[in-house]
Amino acid sequence: MRIILVDNKGCERELEAVEGWRVMEIIRDHGFPIVAECGGACACGTCQVEVDPEWASKLHAPREDELDMLDENYGGEWSRLSCQLIMTPELDGLRVRLADIAIREAA
């Protein structure tokens, strides 16, 4: 399985994905500078991604706590928290872009 990640410079990267892993974990484990301050507890909103609109209907609906975090962190129409997206075979090829809030700047 794979995820197509678009970074903040517009470069596309194909990441190997593991079934059952959070999209956030996959992005982080491939060395991308995703903030993800709460580690996947849906408590900070700093792992926000923008899902390609073609994939939006294949994702489960966000829970209320995810919607609250997106509202607090200016989530757009296609925004989701990558900690709340679990890889399944149906999501093979999922295309996401790191949101500005999710990018850890180099110190």
Question: Nutshell version of this structure?
Answer:
With 107 residues, this protein is α+β, with helices and mostly antiparallel strands. It is built from three helices and five strands; from the N terminus they run ββαβααββ. The longest helix is centred in the middle third of the chain and has 9 residues.
Descriptive report:
With 107 residues, this protein is an alpha+beta fold. The protein has one domain (2-102): Beta-grasp domain (Ubiquitin-like (UB roll)), CATH 3.10.20. The chain has 3 helices and 5 strands; from the N terminus they run E-E-H-E-H-H-E-E. A 5-stranded mixed sheet has the order 2-1-5-3-4. A hairpin with a 5-residue loop joins strand 1 and strand 2. It is globular, with a radius of gyration of 12 Å.
Layout of helices and strands, plus pairs?
Layout: E1 2-6, E2 12-16, H1 23-29, E3 48-51, H2 53-56, H3 64-72, E4 79-81, E5 94-98
Parallel strand pairs: 1-5
Antiparallel strand pairs: 1-2, 3-4, 3-5
